[in-house]
Amino acid sequence: MKNMYRKMASEIASSLKSVLHRIDGAVARRSQDLPNIPPRLVAVSKTKPVEDIIVAYNAGQRHFGENYAAELEEKSKNQQILEQCKDIKWHFIGHLQRKNVNKVTGAPNLYMVETVDSEKLAQTLNTSWGKQKKPERLKVMIQINTSKEENKHGCDINEVGKLVDFVMNNCPVLELKGVMTIGLMNHDLSKGPNPDFQSLVKCREEICKAKDLEIKDLELSMGMSADFENAIEVGSTNVRVGSTIFGERFYGNKKSSTNPASHTDSVASTSLGDPSSKETISGTSIDVTNSLDNTTESIQKLTVKN
Ligand SMILES: *Cc1c(COP(=O)(O)O)cnc(C)c1O
């Protein structure tokens, strides 16, 4: 195990370097009309151990993304992280249930919550952050379900204006920084740019027009391992990259592997990644037909093959 980990450590550093290089390449290709903002890389460390985060941190990475409230809470309060990664910046990128809001707002070094998708959640976050008595407002993005998939979270694209208004007018300790989407994941780039990314770009334009904001003041969080370069080419300012940096995610070691129900559980709580990918859980092959939403809904989308 130790040796395996050693190998991974150097791999993490070199993968990180290669992702940063590819980001530069994509920036060079993007349209000159787009705001000249260097895209931020969020290294998505969900399911990965604290040691891997420290390796990436020591290689220069500062922004990290987690999408389970409990996992963010645990990692952000980890003693090694607190001592060795003083300048770490956490992004919450998963579906946030209101009962878990305090776990997220209480996470040390929380930088941004990218997944506000309802007025109720915005309200709860606002109240909870207010109680933290922090000097600065909490940066948030509104997650939009651009692909209109039932099993994905995010605000309906037609409701975004209302939610923007709500955050700006009713949530004094939240600071609206941008809009975020996951989008369809197996888009074929030979057919042109991902329509989800284009919807998000257009949505930002409309928000800016309605609210008299400058385009450069509203960020776009889009792009993951499979498509971050394409996302940057069309304007992403925040890419969330996990497996390309840290390696594939394995879900085998968290729960008992004998009970099929617990397989479903542990996958559901970590159901992510490329929809076509097969992830191995204790020798059980599982099609992760759904994508990123860490919800009970996604249980139904998973098929466990024995
Ligand atoms: C897991 C996850 C990512 C990273 O996915 P990769 O394909 O591993 O890069 C990005 N965004 C969200 C919301 C995620 O849950």
UniProtKB/TrEMBL annotation:
HAMAP family: PLP_homeostasis. The keyword Phosphoprotein does not apply. It comes from the Eukaryota. The modification N6-(pyridoxal phosphate)lysine is found at residue 46. Coiled coil: none annotated. InterPro entries: Ala_racemase_N (IPR001608), PLP-binding_barrel (IPR029066), PyrdxlP_homeostasis (IPR011078). It comes from Tegillarca granosa. The lineage of its organism: Eukaryota, Metazoa, Spiralia, Lophotrochozoa, Mollusca. PANTHER family: PROLINE SYNTHETASE CO-TRANSCRIBED BACTERIAL HOMOLOG PROTEIN, PYRIDOXAL PHOSPHATE HOMEOSTASIS PROTEIN. Belongs to the pyridoxal phosphate-binding protein YggS/PROSC family. Pyridoxal 5'-phosphate (PLP)-binding protein, which may be involved in intracellular homeostatic regulation of pyridoxal 5'-phosphate (PLP), the active form of vitamin B6. SUPFAM superfamilies: PLP-binding barrel. This is Pyridoxal phosphate homeostasis protein. Residues 38-248 form the Alanine racemase N-terminal domain. Keywords: Pyridoxal phosphate. Residues 254-284 are annotated as: Disordered.
